[in-house]
């Protein structure tokens, strides 16, 4: 089964041990809900949480795809997470603190569990958080052909912890150089693998102006969606990752100009000379319409 690149502007985390927050996330305008069994759930609550998440997946009406962030594969919790949830058919699995080898191993686990449950093999997609370990960072260009992979994302906090940093931002509040590099490598690695690049969270859920700036910058750079930690962030993210009416009109004009000159490598439009990269970017903008 072929997994398509992920099409989601907003990906909202919800803790797996909070039925109220799970329900609230499912009623939001998020394009995708990520039920969290990792950071949001304490170790002593994980067993109960994974059972509750499996039941939620079985019984809840899904207004949008529901994915599950499992625990890292090198933890004692990952296999119990998968054993509990696969039969309930999550739409996808987010794999944290991962390398390419971990992603391949996850595919093997999912295949075995799908087969045991009598489910179609390969239907559960995967999003890899690819910068949360030092080893994972060196794998960012190595995800082409990775089974089930639909998207790559990154995390600034776990990356900082992995490096032994005391912080990840400079005196002006911008990410320090390593984390800017990790963001750029995630974007490049996703493009090389032919999957979707997803921007990391904006941690201050009250700072909607800052979120808007980050999201618009990320979309312009090539990210196609963004992680969220609060429902209030969803409208801002959805708007930022949707092309404006002006962008759509300009993209349509570019496509029309090339359509009117079949076989031409360059065309003129409003005093500018446009070539194939302009046409490809215009088509990409039109593909983002909702």
The poorly predicted ranges are none
Summarize the helix and strand pattern as letters: EHEHEHEHEHEHHEHEHHEEH
Characterize the main sheet: 8 strands, parallel, barrel
Distance between the termini: 26 Å
Apparent shape: globular
Query: Taking all residues together, what is the mean pLDDT?
Result: 95
Q: How many helices does DSSP assign?
A: 11
Helix content: 40-55%
Tell me what portion of residues adopts beta-strand conformation: 5-15%
Using only C-alpha atoms, the radius of gyration works out to 20 Å
Strand order of the largest sheet: 1-2-3-4-5-6-7-8
Based on helices, strands and strand pairing, what is the structural class?
alpha/beta
Number of strands: 10
Can you walk me through this structure?
By secondary structure, the protein is an alpha/beta fold. 43% of the residues lie in helices and 15% in strands. It has eleven helices and ten strands. It has helices spanning 19-27, 46-59, 78-85, 100-117, 134-137, 156-163, 177-193, 208-221, 234-240, 245-259, 276-287, and strands at residues 10-15, 32-36, 66-69, 92-95, 125-129, 149-153, 196-199, 225-228, 267-269, 272-274. It has an eight-stranded parallel β-barrel with strand order 1-2-3-4-5-6-7-8, surrounded by five helices. Strand 7 (196-199), helix 8 and strand 8 form a beta-alpha-beta unit. Helix 10 (245-259) packs across helix 11 (276-287). The longest helix is centred in the middle third of the chain and has 18 residues, at 100-117. The mean pLDDT is 95.
């Amino acid at each position: 089964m072929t997994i398509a690149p992920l099409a989601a502007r907003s990906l909202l985390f919800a803790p797996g041990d909070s039925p109220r927050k799970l329900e609230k996330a499912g009623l939001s305008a998020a394009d995708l809900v990520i039920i969290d069994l990792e950071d949001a759930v304490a170790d002593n609550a994980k067993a109960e949480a994974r059972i509750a998440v499996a039941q939620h997946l079985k019984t809840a009406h899904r207004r949008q795809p529901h994915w599950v962030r499992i625990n890292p594969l090198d933890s004692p919790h990952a296999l119990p997470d998968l054993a509990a949830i696969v039969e309930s058919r999550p739409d996808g699995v987010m794999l944290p603190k991962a390398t390419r080898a971990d992603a391949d191993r996850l595919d093997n686990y999912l295949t075995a569990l799908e087969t045991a449950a009598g489910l179609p093999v390969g239907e559960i997609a995967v999003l890899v958080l690819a910068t949360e370990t030092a080893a994972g960072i060196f794998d960012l260009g190595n995800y082409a052909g990775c089974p089930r992979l639909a998207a790559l994302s990154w995390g600034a906090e776990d990356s900082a912890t992995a490096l032994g940093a005391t912080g990840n931002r400079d005196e002006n509040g911008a990410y320090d150089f390593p984390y800017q590099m990790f963001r750029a490598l995630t974007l490049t690695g996703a493009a090389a693998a032919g999957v979707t690049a997803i921007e990391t969270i904006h941690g201050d859920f009250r700072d909607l102006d800052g979120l808007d700036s980050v999201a618009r910058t990320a979309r312009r750079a090539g990210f196609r969606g963004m992680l969220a930690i609060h429902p209030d962030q969803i409208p801002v993210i959805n708007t930022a990752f949707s092309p404006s009416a002006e962008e759509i009109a300009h993209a349509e004009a570019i496509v029309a100009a090339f359509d009117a000159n079949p076989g031409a490598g360059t065309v003129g439009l409003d005093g500018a000379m446009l070539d194939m990269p302009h046409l490809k970017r215009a088509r990409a903008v039109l593909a983002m319409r909702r």
